[in-house]
Amino acid sequence: MSRNTAIARIHAPARSAMQSGKAKGGGWMLTFAPAEARKLDPLTGWFGSGDTQSQLRLSFSSREAAEAFARANGIVYEVEDAPAVRHEMKPKSYAENFRYGRAENWTH
């Protein structure tokens, strides 16, 4: 049986909205689900908990490496498959708007 009570999630993180390229893609992450609810601190008014494991995020180069780490350390985990890759966009040029024999209307 596992020594941890929280279930870990192995997933491929989504790219940020500012990242349009393909660099730094293909990595996998192991994150833990919160083991306890967050509570309001009456003195400061901030939310907090004693669960430090939910703050932990481990990065791996492959799914197999993340699964091997979880098995070696007795961590109960579930794997989320990587999101489907979109097809490549065909690059267009500004001159396409004025091409002779164009089937669709000019949009701007």
UniProtKB/TrEMBL annotation:
Keywords recorded for this protein, A-Z: Electron transport, Membrane, Respiratory chain, Transit peptide, Transport
Coarse class of the protein's main subcellular location: membrane
Superkingdom, taxonomy of origin: Bacteria
GO cellular component terms attached to this protein's record: membrane
GO biological process: electron transport chain
Protein name listed in UniProt: Oxidoreductase
Subcellular localization, as worded in the UniProt entry: Membrane
